[in-house]
Amino acid sequence: MTVRWRPLLAADIPAVSAIAARIHPDFPEDDAVFADRQAIAPDFCFLFEIDAAPAGYVLAHPYRLGGLPALNTVLGRLPDLCDTLYIHDLALLPAARGSGAARRIVQTLARRAIPFGPLSLVAVNGSVPFWSRMGFSVTDEAHLAEKLASYASDACYMVRSKLAPEPSKR
């Protein structure tokens, strides 16, 4: 079995959309959002393959720490003075889980994020324990309450310091 993360291409958007619909049915996003992230931050968007078949993806982009884009929103361009690498989405099909793929891509993103400072994201679907193992901590940002509620009632804004330890292998 061959597994790998590779750069996400515009031609991969239908595969990303199919994976997203399966993994995140409660958080639908238009293909234009996936294409937007790939176009504005190609160095931070990857497709995970198992034997050359799409099995997951990660979309990330520079952003402003303490801020987050609304769900299903095309950005068009990156904001000025980005100071975090925001992980928009990490989704793995069941066949990819337990492979270490998530740990590997978080390590890759952390290395690439050095010019921007910490990593940040919104955790949903009870994923706070997973992201905590990846070195992220819940950060109370009262000004984000309304946007977080648009994601889900359990949505949490999380940050990983650029000096955080490597993700746990658990």
UniProtKB/TrEMBL annotation:
One Pfam family from the record: Acetyltransf_1
Record-linked InterPro entries: Acyl_CoA_acyltransferase (IPR016181), GNAT_dom (IPR000182)
Stretches of the chain forming a coiled coil according to its record: none
Domain N-acetyltransferase: 3-163
One function term, GO molecular function aspect: acyltransferase activity, transferring groups other than amino-acyl groups
Record key words, sorted: Transferase
Descriptive protein name: GCN5-related N-acetyltransferase
Originating organism: Pelagibacterium halotolerans (strain DSM 22347 / JCM 15775 / CGMCC 1.7692 / B2)
